[in-house]
């Protein structure tokens, strides 16, 4: 039996390849420092665990929920989005448009559902590099065309609006923004969001998928803001994506959701009903009985942990005269290292005109020689760079960064 052309054309994950090698080395007894993780080394909030436990004895926890999720939970999520983003889905400027929520098996599932519901063959979707690894492959799987707009580490990954404007064509169906950003560990400024809102008003046919899964994981002020806060009428063509994976430290529970105009949610729900049916009923029921506001207290030590590890990177870079690589991560779990600004890059680059992407080779050498695993920026649309996760325990993280900076020093 032959695989479909869509699957055969799907890019293999470099991250999985490196992780397989890391497991192999660990099994041979080598110390391996895995800085690839997008999940916290913390248990979820205890009261959330208690809420899950309290639902174990109820039959409905083991049965299907409605395809789009329990209605009460959907309403609770919509209210949560209104409160945390400071918006009103009943505002007059929205002309009576009704909004709904669809609960899925993680935010990743939500995004794939959205693209499957929106994209026709040949439709273009603008993505901003560095982007989350799966965006391009998801778009292509839906027979759409990913159109990349590059940002730069020298502008702290602020997407140039002039380049977004250039990328817009008659075929543009949507723009995906991810703020706070994985892999950059930053979020777009309030000023940028205002300008982006104005740009969207110039193009009334374009929708926006706003991936906000790291919204609550901001450890330096100012907090994230969004274009639809500046121009609320844009909510009529915006799909907000969030979930519990990051804010509740619950990646394995697989609950994500989107909030959007009701007609869009209906299409997403129909698609989900045919492909996967409803999300985890047990966890949905626990969420109905959990006070979402409690996650703020839970996240305080998490944010301190991320801030401390970001400081460790800064100090190690400073000690080794590598501050050209430094920028201030402020949100999400990550930091991007630019290899071109390090002495070791000269060992790979043939001459100054050589623009080859050596990220995978450098990361492989780092793993083989140091036992340190980081993710090549290649998968994120950023050549000659890599993503470092900040989530490891402090002592182990410090050891790993010490090894990385010595390697980068050449």
TrEMBL record:
Q: What GO biological process terms are annotated to this protein in UniProt? A: amino acid metabolic process
Protein family (similarity comment): Belongs to the class-I pyridoxal-phosphate-dependent aminotransferase family.
State the organism named in the record. Bacteriovorax stolpii
What is the protein name stated in its UniProt record?
Aminotransferase class I/classII large domain-containing protein
Please name the GO terms that the record assigns under molecular function. pyridoxal phosphate binding; transaminase activity
Q: Per its Swiss-Prot or TrEMBL entry, what cofactor is needed?
A: pyridoxal 5'-phosphate
Q: Does the keyword Protein biosynthesis apply?
A: no
Q: Does the keyword Transferase apply?
A: yes
What domain of life? Answer: Bacteria
InterPro entries per record = Aminotransferase_I/II_large, AspAT/PAT-like, PyrdxlP-dep_Trfase, PyrdxlP-dep_Trfase_major, PyrdxlP-dep_Trfase_small
> What SUPFAM superfamilies does UniProt report for this protein, alphabetically?
PLP-dependent transferases (SSF53383)
């Amino acid at each position: 039996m032959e695989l479909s052309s869509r699957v055969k054309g799907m890019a293999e994950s470099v991250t999985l390849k490196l992780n397989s090698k890391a497991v192999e080395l660990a099994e041979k007894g080598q110390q391996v420092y895995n800085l690839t993780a997008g999940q916290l080394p913390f248990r979820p909030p205890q009261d959330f665990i208690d809420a899950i436990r309290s639902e174990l004895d109820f039959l409905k926890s083991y049965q299907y929920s409605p395809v789009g999720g329990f209605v009460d939970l959907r309403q609770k999520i919509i209210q949560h989005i209104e409160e945390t983003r400071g918006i009103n889905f009943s505002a007059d400027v929205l002309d009576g448009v009704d909004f709904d929520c669809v609960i899925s098996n993680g935010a990743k599932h939500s995004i794939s559902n959205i693209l499957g519901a929106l994209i026709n063959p040949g439709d273009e979707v603008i993505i901003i590099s560095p982007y989350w690894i799966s965006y391009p492959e998801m778009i292509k799987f839906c027979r759409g065309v990913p159109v990349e707009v590059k940002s730069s580490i020298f502008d702290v990954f602020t997407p140039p609006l002039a380049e977004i404007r250039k990328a817009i064509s008659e075929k543009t169906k949507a723009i995906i923004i991810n703020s706070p950003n994985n892999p950059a560990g930053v979020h777009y400024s309030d000023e940028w969001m205002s300008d982006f809102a104005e740009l969207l008003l110039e193009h009334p046919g374009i929708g926006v998928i706003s991936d906000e899964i790291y919204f609550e994981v901001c450890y330096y002020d100012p907090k994230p803001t969004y274009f639809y806060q500046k121009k609320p009428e844009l909510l009529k063509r915006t799909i907000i994506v969030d979930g519990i994976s990051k804010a509740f430290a619950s990646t394995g529970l697989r609950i994500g959701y989107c909030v959007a105009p009701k007609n869009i949610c209906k299409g997403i729900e129909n698609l989900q009903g045919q492909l996967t049916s409803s999300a985890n009923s047990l966890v949905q029921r626990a969420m109905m009985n959990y006070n979402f506001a409690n996650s703020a207290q839970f996240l305080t030590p998490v944010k301190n942990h991320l801030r401390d590890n970001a400081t460790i990177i800064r100090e190690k870079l400073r000690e080794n005269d590598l501050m050209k690589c430094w920028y201030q991560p402020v949100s999400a779990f990550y930091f991007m290292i630019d290899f071109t600004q390090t002495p070791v890059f000269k060992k790979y680059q043939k001459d100054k005109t050589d623009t080859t992407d050596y990220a995978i080779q450098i990361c492989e050498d780092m793993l083989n020689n140091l036992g340190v695993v980081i993710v090549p920026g290649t998968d994120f649309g950023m050549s000659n760079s890599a993503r470092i996760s900040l989530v490891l325990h402090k002592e182990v993280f410090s050891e790993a960064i010490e090894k990385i900076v010595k390697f980068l020093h050449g």
